[in-house]
Amino acid sequence: MPPYLQLAEILAGRIERGDWQPNRPIPSELQLVQEFGIARGTVRRAVAVLRERGLVFTVPQRGTYVSPPAETVAE
After folding, report:
1. Which one, of 7, 15, 13, 14, lies nearest residue 32 by Cα?
2. Is 45 exposed, middle or buried (0-12, 13-18, 19+ CB in 10 A)?
3. Which letter, b or e, does each residue of 12-31 get, where b requires 16 or more Cβ atoms within 10 Å of its Cβ?
4. HEC-encoded secondary structure of the chain
5. Most buried residue, 12, 15, 28, 56, by CB count within 10 Å?
6. Domain-wise residue ranges, the chain
7. Which SUPFAM superfamilies match (predicted)?
8. What CATH topology corresponds to 3-66?
9. pLDDT digit string (tens) for 4-59?
């Protein structure tokens, strides 16, 4: 498995466990680079995977945030 997908799985686990709360920012690229000792491009690709999965959203000039949980529709 490519390193960016391994990182995406680790970060997704943090979101799913509730380590990172909805509508709160995730650590910056630089913080993740330092924590995992990997290249910034790897972090960017991992975050892009999380964005594609709907787990995070990015606000230009602000950062990347944990997406709120999907609302369930009551019948």
Report:
1. 7
2. middle
3. beebeeeebeeeeebbebee
4. CCHHHHHHHHHHHHHHHCCCCCCCECCCHHHHHHHHCCCHHHHHHHHHHHHHCCCEEEECCCEEEECCCCCCCCC
5. 56
6. 3-66
7. Winged helix' DNA-binding domain
8. Arc Repressor Mutant, subunit A (1.10.10)
9. 999 999 999 999 999 999 999 999 999 999 999 999 999 999 999 999 999 999 99
Residue 67 near residue 22, CB atoms below 8 Å: yes
State the residue for tokens 């630089």. 30
